[in-house]
Amino acid sequence: MATAKAPARSAKKIHELVADQIRQQIVKGELAEGERLPPEDELTVQFGVARTTLREALRVLESQGLVAIRRGRGGGPVVTHPSLEPIAMALALTLQLQNTSVGDLDAARQIIEPAIAGQLARSHTDADLVALEEAIDLASDAAERNDGIAFGLAAARVHETLVERSGNSTLATISKLLQSMVRAYYTRHMDTTEQALMRRAVRSYRKLLGYIRDADEAAAVQHWQATMRYTISHRDAREPVTIAAGW
Question: Are residues 229 and 116 in the same domain?
Answer without folding.
Answer: yes
